[in-house]
Amino acid sequence: MTETRVTRSTLEQAGFRVVTRDRANCAVVAVLQERPDLVLYANDKRHPSLAGTYLAAATVYAALFKTSPAGLKYTAGLDEPTAKFLQNVAWETVQDYFRTVQTVAK
Predict the structure, then answer these.
(1) Beta bridge pairs of residue 66
(2) Any idea where the domains of the chain sit in the sequence?
(3) Comparing C-alpha atoms, which of 46, 30, 21, 60 is closest to residue 38?
(4) Rounded to the nearest 10 degrees, what angle do helices 80-105 and 50-65 cross at?
(5) 3-state helix/strand/coil string of the chain
(6) What is the chain's pLDDT, residue by residue, as a tens digit (106 residues)?
(7) Residues with Cβ within 8 Å of residue 86, at least 6 apart in sequence
(8) Residue from 61, 62, 48, 55 nearest 30 by CA
């Protein structure tokens, strides 16, 4: 039996639009680079912490509405500076993504 590895590139070449969590992962990397003290995952290292969940939600918000989540009043119980920081990272990450998509599409 021959094993065939299906990659994102293979699917995209076949005309499929591949939706992944890459943008959320990029946001996590950006947060950890600027604020390594911020805990984004629960102790099991598989599930997000409150801050990780907030970051993911802010990233989805930014991507869906193509609007910055910065300034949203809801902080999910996070302190305001942390929520604002996560909102800004989410927006920057989504803007970077859309710039990349536009560049690739040209």
Answers:
(1) none
(2) 21-105
(3) 30
(4) 40
(5) CCCCCCCHHHHHHCCCCCCCCHHHHHHHHHHHHHCCCCCCECCCCCCECHHHHHHHHHHHHHHHHCCCCCCCCCCCCCCHHHHHHHHHHHHHHHHHHHHHHHHHHC
(6) 444 454 555 545 555 444 444 555 688 888 888 999 999 988 988 889 999 999 999 999 999 999 999 999 999 999 999 999 999 999 999 998 887 766 655 5
(7) 31, 51, 54, 55, 58, 78
(8) 55
Place of tokens 């949203």: 72
Phi, psi (deg, nearest 5) at residue 62: -60, -40
Written as six digits, the tokens of 41 are 């995952």
**With contact defined as beta carbons under 8 Å apart, do 56 and 86 qualify?**
no
What confidence score (pLDDT) does residue 2 get? 45
